[in-house]
Amino acid sequence: MREKQRFDRLEQFRIFAAALVVAIHTSPLMSLSADADFFLTRVLGRIAVPFFFMVTGQFVVSAFPECGMARVLNYVKKIALLYGAAVILYIPIGIYAGQYKNLGISDVLRMLIFDGTFYHLWYFPACIIGILIVYAASCVMRRNKMMILAAVLYAAGLFGDSYYGLVEELPVVGDFYEAAFQLFSYTRNGIFLAPVFLLLGEAASSGTKNKKRAADARILWAGLAVSFVAMTEEAFLLRHFELQRHDSMYILLVPVMYFLYKILIQNTGRGTVRKKRPGGVQRYLGTTATWTYILHPAMIVIVRGAAKVTKLDLLVENSVVHYFVVCICSFASAFMIAVFLDQWKGPVGGRKRQLLLQQKKSRRSRAQERQESREHERQESRAQERQESRAQDFCLGRAWLEIDHEALQHNVAVLRSKLPADCRLMPAVKADAYGHGAVLIAGQLQKMGVDSFCVACVQEGIQLRRQGIRGEILILGYTHKDQCALLHQYHLTQTVIDYEYALQLNSCGVDIHVHIGIDTGMHRLGERSENIKKIMAVYGLEHLIVDGLYTHLSASDTLQMYGRAYTSLQAEAFCRTVAALREQGYPCPKLHMLASYGVLNYPELAGDYARVGIALYGVLSTKEDTVRWQEELQPVLSLKARIAAVKVLYQGESAGYGPAFTAARDMKIAVLAIGYADGLPRALSGGVGSVLIHGQRAPVIGRICMDQTIVDVTGIGDVKTGDTAVLIGRSGSMEISVCDIAAQAGTITNEILSRMGARLERVMV
Ligand SMILES: *Cc1c(COP(=O)(O)O)cnc(C)c1O
Hints:
Number of strands: 18
Radius of gyration: 31 Å
Number of helices: 28
Oligomer: single chain
Largest sheet: 9 strands, mixed
Bound molecules: pyridoxal-5'-phosphate
């Protein structure tokens, strides 16, 4: 979730940066003061383009160098397509502006490769050249050497830009620049400007993964303030001494950008966005910024034309008005394009499939709608019944889990409805079905027609078989080769972790069914997607029967820029591998990519199976995500415990281990028969967590023990030994969700659920 907020801020800043670029090209403050305009457009404005490079760097360069050429080319192709579209768009405007008169071949090449075919379009080839340079460097040197190279290039660029006056007259150097300017008009291009900021984007973002290293926000703000003031002075001095040939590169721009970017992606800063629901307008911001960049010069032409025709001179003569009019027109048209592209393309290509799905949907839709509304009514009455019945206890034990059969059934239906008919659920029932009880859950699912499951290890598979679970059981993790016989004996399907592992499995000499794991970017298990030869070799092993191939997505939990880009790269890599195998005649029977978030965010990537885990249990990893899907998914599990004792704690007495809690006044406390050995995180000690008793909240006091927990029940009437406390779930009108507990314990729901203790009883209600 933090990740998301950070990326949101990046996206928002892209809009600001686009507005700055418009300012550079319209000089809004010109009619007020030349100095003010210089500051806005030549100092502040100069952060815009480096910022765009840094965003690209964060996402592209961080994928080097393991990624292989194909991935780099893929990025380059995308930028080139956009550039191509922009070039075509500006041909008529360029002709109208008289830019394309008397062009020789060399001029055309210079424009296409360096200068751009219109004054702002240099950015796109610069991006491509920068990426290629950084990529080439990454193949032959380490990161710090790359940084030095980029710095040298940037320095060379400086002397062709705002420091030109210092070298212009020098014998050799001056000639060098003169020659270079035959090739390109400015040194602010892909060779000199882009590499340093591409690398800086990656460097600034990589530190934040490590919390301890995340710098103090105050230091960052101070760094930004100091370097920005100094850069302003640098710029005005250079102008004063008339050293500038062009004014887009400053020495201090580098630290300014570093601090700025750090602040934008830090989660400790004050500006953290608290968005309930990512998506909405948010998801168009990136594309809107890009198209604002592309379109604004056209809008400048149009606004000028309109001013002439309507004789509204104010539109042009007042630079502030002019700026805002151009901004509004550019943003509005860019936003429309962003919405249009989003509708048309969907999150990850898959255009045809989506159209087909839409057609199918509209055919089914009416009957379905009617059915859905009936279903909805039924659900509501059921939910009410359920709530009433929950008031009773279903267990005589000390602490137990209640598994809501109908919620499970409901979630199965919801997840199935998101997937095409030919994609089957392969629920993840690993870690005792995320604490819910694997045998219990798998048994229920089997009755709902589910006939494939995935687990983490061989023991989990055997447990299910022994309890009568049929169908396919896929082991997602490592199994020692000495346990191969068990795989065979219990008809368990094993994941091929990589080629070396396949050789070990094969050496056991018994036939084993396998799915080949393909690593497309998670870099956990699976053979690397580009190692086609090794993957083919797995097919050749005589004891392995390949039933399928799958990959695991590492960023499908977000629809923001990063998630989309990474997910589409992973999906493409997987498809490429499958296509290469098929081309060579290797069968690919079952294919699958999606886990829970994949199903919810990228259903168009559905294959033959969806390995749903957390969503099936009706919660998502974090509160924010759960809120988003709450109406659709219902939590399956409640955690309850018995009150073992109720007593008075007199003022000044302490309760539990150590002096962690001392009563400030006389109070009533209850001791619950549940502790951290049952999966209640000890981090909820000392008032962090609370439980529900008779529909009221009772805070945890003191330290949670291994088998007991003490809560404050002062003010809750009629509490007695044997009553029930709710730790997760509803009591009266109150509810504590797994998400609440995960947030209190500083983790995700998956961890809380999968650590539910073995000695809890599990009962189906
Ligand atoms: C755990 C796991 C899943 C299920 O993940 P959820 O996010 O809980 O749906 C799917 N695939 C693999 C490889 C897993 O390890």
